[in-house]
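We were asked to recover a plausible sequence for a given structure. The inputs and outputs are reproduced exactly as logged, with field labels preserved.

PROBLEM: sequence recovery
POSITIONS: 384
GIVEN STRUCTURE:
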């Protein structure tokens, strides 16, 4: 591998998150200071693997002019996809969609384009791809992105703070209707396998129950908490539920099973909780799904700062000869951690961590079964 870097490429993969453009801008500006040429691969890796499907140039030169004024914008100027994983690339076969490994081809295409290094901005799936490309000889740096905040070895991913800020504002607003009309408002937020958004937004906005994927919940417990509030004259309740939360003994609510090269689609648990709480409490319950609203909009100041720091650090790390690592937030510092230690791992909410303890200490219901054994529950009630 030529030790001299002249040309680098950047790709943004998976679900968009506020701060992606700030990373792109930081990489381009920092690379320009070193005299490196920067290129953007459109739609994850599809600019190389399926250029015919890309609108505009599939691989574009990113000059400093191209990134002028984008740091505060949501989305990604490069586009993204959740259908372009080169390790599990979807291909139409006789029996329907099948998956194929196109990573060798991708490495070859990067070399043909003259890329001396690749900066992969993405979530857990993208870090696994980055690690695979590293093993196949590419010089790669990962940048941790996801509103879900579920990447291992970084204290925080960019996108999370913006999503929590917006979710908090939405829940604040829903308190008004809940309070005025003595209702139970159920708010479903994103969080496929980790409940960071539900936990932080629920705590920040004063939710009365928070249901996380990490703690299978008992709906009777939630109904009892609502009844207790009613008895104390507090006739409204707000329940925040992560899309991946799971009732005890029941599977997650799937909107669609995983297609070729894709993850399963979750959603619907809010409606299920709404119906179950309505029948148990006799109260008027309403469900609001925040869903993709949490991924949109402008990044918070915090996300703009860490996205810029991650982007600049990716270039700095390459310049000092390191590679095969992900940039990460550790306390107030940016560190590099081996991609091999991040790939295939995720960071779930520790149920004995300080924030969950705080939630318990504030009397917020987590739906934990309250010591009652299932056979002591009211006759006719489902046992979850
Ligand atoms: O990874 C972030 C995330 O927002 C998850 O919380 C959610 O399950 C998923 O993306 C939805 O992705 P898509 O838009 O591809 O269905």
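RECOVERED SEQUENCE:
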């Amino acid at each position: 591998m030529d030790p001299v870097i002249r040309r680098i490429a950047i790709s943004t993969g998976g679900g968009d998150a506020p701060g992606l453009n700030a990373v792109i801008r930081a990489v381009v500006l920092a690379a320009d200071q070193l005299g490196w040429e920067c290129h953007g691969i459109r739609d994850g890796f599809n600019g190389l693997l399926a250029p015919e499907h890309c609108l505009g140039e599939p691989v574009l030169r990113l000059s400093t002019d191209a990134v002028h004024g984008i740091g505060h914008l949501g989305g990604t100027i490069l586009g993204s996809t959740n259908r372009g994983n080169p390790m599990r690339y979807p291909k139409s076969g006789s029996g329907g969609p099948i998956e194929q490994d196109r990573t060798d081809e991708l490495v070859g295409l990067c070399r043909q384009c003259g890329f001396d290094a690749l900066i992969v901005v993405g979530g857990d799936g993208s870090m696994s791809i980055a690690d695979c490309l590293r093993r196949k000889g590419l010089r790669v740096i990962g940048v941790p992105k996801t509103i879900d905040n579920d990447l291992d070895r970084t204290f925080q991913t960019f996108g999370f703070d913006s999503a929590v800020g917006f979710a908090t504002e939405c829940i604040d607003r829903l308190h008004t209707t809940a309070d005025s009309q003595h209702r139970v408002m159920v708010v479903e937020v994103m969080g496929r396998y980790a409940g960071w958004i539900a936990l932080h937004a629920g705590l920040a906005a004063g939710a009365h129950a928070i249901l996380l994927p990490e703690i299978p919940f008992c709906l009777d417990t939630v109904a009892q908490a609502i009844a207790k509030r009613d008895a104390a004259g507090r006739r409204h309740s707000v329940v925040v539920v992560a899309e991946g939360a799971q009732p005890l003994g029941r599977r997650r609510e799937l909107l669609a099973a995983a297609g070729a090269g894709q993850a399963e689609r979750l959603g619907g648990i809010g409606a299920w909780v709404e119906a179950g709480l309505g029948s148990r409490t006799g109260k008027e319950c309403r469900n609001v799904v925040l869903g993709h609203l949490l991924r949109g909009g402008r990044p918070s100041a915090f996300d703009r700062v860490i996205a810029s720091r991650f982007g600049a650090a990716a270039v700095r790390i390459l310049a000092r000869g390191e590679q095969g690592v992900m940039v990460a937030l550790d306390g107030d510092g940016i560190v590099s951690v081996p991609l091999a230690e991040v790939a295939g791992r995720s960071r779930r909410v520790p149920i004995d961590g300080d924030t969950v303890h705080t939630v318990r200490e504030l009397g917020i219901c987590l739906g934990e079964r309250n010591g009652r054994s299932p056979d002591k529950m009211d006759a006719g009630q489902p046992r979850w």
